[in-house]
Amino acid sequence: MSIKALFPTILASLILSGCIEVRDPEKTPDTQVAQESAPSETLDDLVIDQPMFLIEGKILTVRDIKQIKFDEERELSQEPTTVELKLRKLTFTENGSLQIFSNDLVLEVEEIQSSNGRIYTYPQGTKAGLANNGRDGGRINLLANFASGRLLLEFRGEEGGDGFSADPDPTPLFHRNICRYQRGKRGADGKRGGKSGYIEAIIKNEAKPFELRIQIISAKGGLPEKGVAGKIGFRLPDGSCEAFYNQFSTDGQEGAIGPTGEEETSNIPIRN
């Protein structure tokens, strides 16, 4: 039996009775961007009962993040890293979620219990700063022997940043004792949306019903900036040139919308 992912948003909702394997045929270890690896961490049990975040190789709550900022007087690094976790049991409560950003998470679990838990990269609407490409979503490698309940894996890249404002050419042109500025410049293009990120998962589920939902969503490119009007220069009595906008000024062209981020797909074969 096979299930095909839906496009453009991949949404696979699976009731598992055997072993499910989710792999991305487009990605292999050789094609991955090298990331700094954090030491693997072994825990007996991990309960995700509130929004939690994978930052600097650690799983942190909002309170943890605020405490680190206060104690160490610094902002936490968003540099991607690879984190390995080995757990006896992973529990998601109704309000539990784990955001992994652009990090890679290798997760080996004996048992998963999930009440509508969620593992995701970036929430909808997350946007890069001006003139910055959107960050790519991370990767999850999930291996579990048993699972029950419902779990959502939601992967999308960060939306691309908008283009910067263009500036007219500041060099005046002189003609017949009149200083004139060149025409306005073209507006900057919007930036690329981030890649969605991808999933590789094996769930061995012999005894308990388990629903795995997968969403892989492309990120929009940034908006372009309008072109800026040129300036008309006027020579002042002291010989200097002052520039003004007026009805003779010429607008520069608007930039282009940034390209949409790549939607990285997965095959979802089922084995009974």
Contiguous low-pLDDT stretches (5 residues minimum) are 1-34, 267-272
User: How would the global form be characterised?
Assistant: elongated
CA radius of gyration is 25 Å
How many DSSP E strands?
17
Quaternary state reads single chain
How far apart, in Å, are the first and last alpha carbons? 8 Å
Order of helical and strand elements: EEEEEEHEEEEEEEEEEE
For the largest beta-sheet, the strand count, sense and barrel status come to:
13 strands, mixed
- What value does the average pLDDT take? 77
Strand proportion, as a percent range, falls in 35-45%
Number of helices: 1
Indicate the structural class.
mainly beta
Give a written overview of the molecule.
With 272 residues, this protein is mainly beta. The chain is built from one helix and 17 strands. Residues 1-34 and 267-272 have low confidence and may be disordered.
Describe the structure concisely.
With about 270 residues, the protein is mostly beta strands. The protein has one helix at about 60-70; strands at about 10-15, 20, 35, 40-50, 50-55, 60, 80-90, 95-100, 105-120, 140-155, 170-175, 180, 200-205, 210-215, 230-235, 240-245, 270. A hairpin with a 5-residue loop joins strand 15 and strand 16 (about 240-245).
